[in-house]
Amino acid sequence: MKKNLRLRTIFIVASTVLAILAVIWPFGRKPTLADFTSLAQMRANAGKNIHLGLDLKGGIHLVMQVQAEEAVQAVVAADAEVAKVKLTEKGIPLAGDPEVDAPNHVIRVRIGAPDRVAEADTLLTTEFNNATISGMGWSSSVSGDTVTYSLANDEARRIMESAHQQAMNIVHNRVDQLGVAEPVVTGHGAKDAYQILLQLPGQDDPERVKKLLQAESRLELRPVVGDSRMSFYPSVDAAKQGGGFNEAEHEVLQYVGRAEPQDKAAGAEQPETPQLDRFMIVDKKSIVAGQDLRDARAIPDQFNSRNYQINFSLKPGGAERFGAWTGANIGKDLAIVLNGQVQSAPRIQGQISDNGQITGNFSKETAEDLALTLRSGALPARIVYQEERTVGPSLGADSIRQGLISSIVGLSVVCLFLLYYYRASGINAIVALVLNLLFLVAFIAWSGAVLTLPGIAGVILLIGMAVDSNVLIFERIREELRNGKVVRSAVDTGFNKAFTTIMDTHVTTIVSAVFLFMFGTGPIKGFAVTLIVGLLANLFTAVFVSRTMFTWTVNRGGRPAETLSI
Amino acid sequence: MFRLFHDNNIDFLGHKAVFIMISVVLMVIGCVGVVARGFNLGVDFAGGSLYYVQFVNPKTAPNDIRSALSAQGIDAQKVTIQPISSGGRTGVGRGLLVRLPADVGTVDETTGIGNQKRIVMKALSSFNATQTNAPGKSDVNLADEAEIFNELTLAGIAADGGATPEAIATAIVAHRNSQPKGVYATIEDVRQAPNVSAASADAIVGAFYAGKSDINQIGGDDFLNLMMRMDPLGLKGDAAAATAQYTALRDTFIGYRDRTLSGVVSSIDEIPFGEVAPQFREAINSQFFVGAFNMTNAESVGAQVGDDLRNRAIYVTLASLVGMLVFIAFRFEWIYGVSAVLAVFHDVPVTLGIFALFGWEINLTVIAAILTLIGYSTNDTIVIFDRIRETLRAQRRDSIEKVTNDAINATLSRTVIASGTAFLTVFVLVLFGGDVLRSFAMVLLIGIVVGTYSSIGIASPIMIWLNKRQRASLPASVRATADAAAAEPSARAARTAKTI
After folding, report:
1. B282 & B170 share domain
2. Whose CB among A93, A475, B241, B349 lies 3.0–4.6 Å from A112's, allowing a Cys bridge?
3. Mean pLDDT of successive 10-residue segments in chain A (566 residues)?
4. Does A424 contact chain B (CB < 8 Å)?
5. 356-375 in B: which are within 8 Å (CB) of A?
6. Total count of domains within chain B
7. CB proximity under 8 Å: A 497-526 to B
8. Between residues 96 and 155 of chain A, which touch chain B (CB distance below 8 Å)?
């Protein structure tokens, strides 16, 4: 018993120390002595570790919806254009422009020459499907001289999901320009709502943010001057002096992409992070821009499925220009420039007009990143703002201060009552309660979870249930004492009997909180998390810690106590 | 020892009729509240906008705002305006909460949040004595490259004389920063910038103004950037010292305006910059005016999102109740699960009914409170059910009524203490918790009372009623087995209890 008690005590002390450390540890840097001796420093560290939600800290909260259906209709409209170009190319006459039924994702093409309808059907079906995400999705039916193409719902959904993803990526890129610490850009709401949640802590001007999102990112494909890929210039000045630079026609841009495979072949290590000292000279004029690109996808290499390549397609106008340039510049490099930074510089292997591939030893991730870059010129569909909240710092500060004051007052009143009603045993309850809150705060600090107002609601329910657990146990012990049991046996029976009840109440609440976590929106999730973690901590403090303290009291002085202050 | 109850033996179930009466009365009151007054849904659920506006003038009246809004074509009848507490601060002007329903103002998109904020800001700017000469434009002296780039691309400038919009933006910002004071005195100064064509300059002049900014509306980052550029203290030689010094002054200013006060200062002189060279105050005075108000918080929710949020809140609550029911059915018996959930079903409409009756607003925070109340109520119910199960095992001969009554009596002091302390905590929250937490605390305050009552007065009678129905439907020979089965889970629970 003695040894067991010592083990339990060590375990409790150790977990308490760990919890305190989790709160005050200076995460992200090497701790110094001051981190553990200076009260102000510990406070500052704790403040940094506990992430407050926007409702407490202030900032901008925007929910926007991508009008994803527009992206599908844009694909349908673009394909109608492709049909016209392709048929004209092959000399197949059209009876009028292709008819677009955008809401139903249908294109009707009337062929002028009845004997070439079948040929046109095969040609366009292949052409349309080549440009889709899955390589299929368009089906056709012929009636008389009209071929009707319709897009499958599956493919439409894939386009919408891709538009959502792409819009999220663009929002992310542009928000980066604001230089906000810890911005949040995630999907939001139901899966088919195609919403994006954007949170910018500490910002106060949503109009400015909206304007930034409204502007287009500039994606351009520009010729690289010289063979700078073999040796990047280490600085802008070095590039300007390096030869071949002409102020009027060229500019020096930073290269932020991955190291090209050639670097690897030359024995250079693939760097983990983009290097900041790589520059290249590119032409000021672009060959094609973001709006000329139709689509870009990462797909597995057909010979080696571990390798990936990027297939991209251009709109008719851009295809013409691109075809002319690539035809004349085989063997030269092409810079993919996003917002003035070179993301990649593939080499032209042959003439490319409407469909091209970028190959190299791409992994799945790097290929997808580059495909996403190629698609990031313009938003694929309109964005509609559905929710906009700006929380000033004063309201959040008020909530924290008033919430804190009332929590302290409330807790003190409860503690005083527990001491008055349960005498010395009340101390057990108070220690258990304080430890419970400490473990919860430690979890919040360690996990980086965000504390919001509904989270505080969870804490209040938690305090109620934590006090209740102690009351259940104490009332049971009192009952057993009244029934004439000796102190030690009363404590044992009291704990055992109350334990079933405590387990039942806790697990029931945790079960319902898990549902809230799984299906709830942001604020409700915050409520659920604090509740689940707090209740688990309470099982430990109210039962294990409190019982250890009782065992310690009962056995004090080497022999079982005859009375218990409860 | 101090005891709340001495060998109490109150016949709770004998007063079943009274409880049912009370519940019926409460539910009727609730229904009357809902029918007569309807729910006062907050912007979270009804859509629309909510603005916290802090005015410098403590005499600003709701009617002043109404007439300013009317001047902008907003139907002032539909606008709700109420005062905000100053959070214990003094001498901070007047805080007003302005709420617009979703259908006010022109709406940009059918599903979106529209342009209510722009209209309200325009209306409120009529309170400013010092008008900026360019309403709707922003200050070029606060703009960064990204903003200037945006305005250029929005004006349709793709490439201008060979320079990209990005290069033009960089050139303008560099030119502005190289001015003697680091700011443009007038917006026309932008035309002097090198390599910037007339078309680009026109775009900038059309989108920006140069002049004084509102000290009550400037953000901390903008303030810091402006001061770093203007550098009235002449610290440019030492970048680290400049950053430290101006950051400290920024923190002093923002801390004073937004934390000591409620978001507005009434004069620039009152800002406690402390011992600082007079050039600093001169720079501030040259660049800022004191506006009449500051919109400290703004919430806009589209009507459709409001519907979504409401439906999701309802579904999630129902899903968590079903999860609870299944778990209780698994631990006890299904009739216990049903009774517990029905008791909660009784608490929620009663609480919501009281909200409707008093016209209190229902928002996302209130939903969090209702979830909390569900937690409290079930907790109480399970404690009693647990005791019933335990007593049932010990006293198999007693009727279910007696066992239940004994269980309620045995747990009565625990019920009173646990609910009482919870009530106390929440009561303190109502008193000191402030505006934001008050609605939350009110739900809990009502909920704790109703929830405690329903575990005794509703859950137990329903359980007994279901229990009797179940027995009546079984043939006599099976009843004994059913009793044994009822006791079975407790044996399992007792085994778990030993493991601690």
Report:
1. yes
2. A93
3. 82 94 87 85 88 85 89 84 82 86 90 87 86 80 90 90 86 76 82 89 81 71 74 77 76 73 38 62 80 78 77 81 86 82 83 82 78 73 85 76 82 91 90 94 89 80 88 92 89 91 91 84 80 93 92 77 78
4. no
5. 364-365, 367-369, 371-372, 374-375
6. 3
7. 497, 499-501, 503-505, 507-509, 511-516, 519-521, 523-524
8. none
pLDDT, residue B248, reads 92
> H or E element: which one contains B325?
helix B303-331
- Which residues of chain A lie closer than 8 angstroms to B426, CB-CB? 410, 460
pLDDT at B213: 86
* A509 to B166: CB separation less than 8 angstroms, yes or no: no
Q: What are B305's two structure tokens?
A: 């999102």
Q: Residue A22 has what pLDDT?
A: 92
Q: Do B424 and B306 lie in a common domain? A: yes
User: Where is the domain boundary, B134, B162, B181?
Assistant: B134
Smallest CA–CA distance, residue B86 to chain A, in Å, is 9
Tens digit of pLDDT for each residue in B437-460? 777 788 888 889 999 999 888 899
Which of A174, A192, A204, A514 to mutate: most B Cβ within 10 Å? A204
Shortest Cα distance, chain B CAs vs residue A172, angstroms? 15
What is the widest separation between alpha-carbon atoms in chain B?
103
Give pLDDT, residue B158.
Answer: 64
Q: What is the pLDDT of residue A266?
A: 34
* Rounded-to-integer distance, Cα B218 and Cα B347, Å: 47
Residue B451 touches chain A, beta carbons under 8 Å: no
Q: At what angle do helices A425-447 and A39-49 cross, to 10 degrees?
A: 60
Please choose, from the candidates A282, A293, A284, A364, the residue with its C-alpha nearest in 3D space to the C-alpha of residue A322.
Answer: A293
Question: Does the beta-carbon distance from A527 to B368 stay under 8 Å?
Answer: yes
Residue A57 is predicted with a pLDDT of 83
Structure tokens at B204: 């900038």
Please answer whether residues A273 and A257 qualify as being in contact, where contact means their C-beta atoms are separated by less than 8 angstroms: no
What is the per-residue pLDDT across A385-417, written as a single tens digit (0 to 9) for each?
Answer: 888 898 887 777 777 778 778 888 888 999 999
Is residue B495 over pLDDT 60? Answer: no
User: Is B317 among the domain residues?
Assistant: yes
pLDDT at residue A1, rounded to an integer: 54
CB of B395 within 8 Å of any CB in chain A?
A: no
pLDDT of res. A190 = 76
The tokens describing A462, both together, are 């938690």
pLDDT band at residue B498, thresholds of 50, 70 and 90? very low
As a whole number of angstroms, the distance between CA A514 and CA A510 comes to 6
Using the predicted structure, report yes or no on whether residue B214 has a pLDDT greater than 60. yes
Nearest CA in chain B to A403: B433
The region, left, alpha or beta by phi > 0 then psi within -120 to 50, assigned to residue A184 is beta
| Angle, CA B342 vertex, CA B350 and CA A458 arms, to 5° | 70
Window 141-170 of B: residues touching A by CB (8 A cutoff) are 146-147, 149-150, 153-154, 162, 164-166
Domain that holds residue B96: 46-134
Q: Could you give all domains of chain A from N- to C-terminal order, each with its CATH number?
A: 2-58+392-558 (1.20.1640.10), 68-155 (3.30.70), 219-359 (3.30.1360)
End-to-end CA distance of chain A: 23
Q: Inform me whether the C-beta atom of residue A412 falls under 8 Å from chain B C-beta atoms.
A: no
B417/A504 Cβ within 8 A:
no
Assign residue B431 the CATH number of its domain.
Answer: 1.20.1640.10
Is residue B354 domain-resident?
yes
* Whether B360 and B448 share a structural domain: yes
- Nearest CA-CA distance, residue B221 and chain A, Å: 9
pLDDT reported for residue A231: 62
Q: Give the CA count within 13 Å in the CB-facing half-sphere of B68.
A: 18
Residue at B296 is within a domain? no
